[in-house]
Amino acid sequence: MSSLSEYALRMTRLSARLFGEVARPTDSKSMKVVKLFSEQPLAKKKETYDWYPNHNTYFGLMGTLRFLGLCSGSKYRCVFKAETTEMADTEYKGKDSKPEYLEEMLPKYTT
């Protein structure tokens, strides 16, 4: 006599199909495919579509900084005037020339 009736076998297969499990016993190669298709698609994963920063937000923030006068320079090279002048006043008082790292940060104007 069989361990499960035909009705019980059909119900177990139906419940496996309903809950996303494998309906019939399969080998390991087929289980790899089942596992691959049961995962979330690559385009829906947060790591994929959230990889790059939100450029529109950064563009708006940079425009606001330029409008307020906190940012100067061509393109997106930003020099925060208050911070650089404060650093120059506190650290390098009495020196005639600007420090090298400040000269690299400031935009170069050719005359």
TrEMBL record:
Cellular localization per UniProt: Mitochondrion
InterPro entries registered for this protein in UniProt: Ribosomal_mS33
Membrane-crossing segments per the record: none
GO CC field: mitochondrion; ribonucleoprotein complex; ribosome
One matching Pfam family: MRP-S33
Keyword DNA repair recorded: no
Keywords of the record: Mitochondrion, Ribonucleoprotein, Ribosomal protein
Coiled coil: none
Domain of life: Eukaryota
Protein family according to the UniProt entry: Belongs to the mitochondrion-specific ribosomal protein mS33 family.
Protein name: Small ribosomal subunit protein mS33
Organism: Marmota marmota marmota
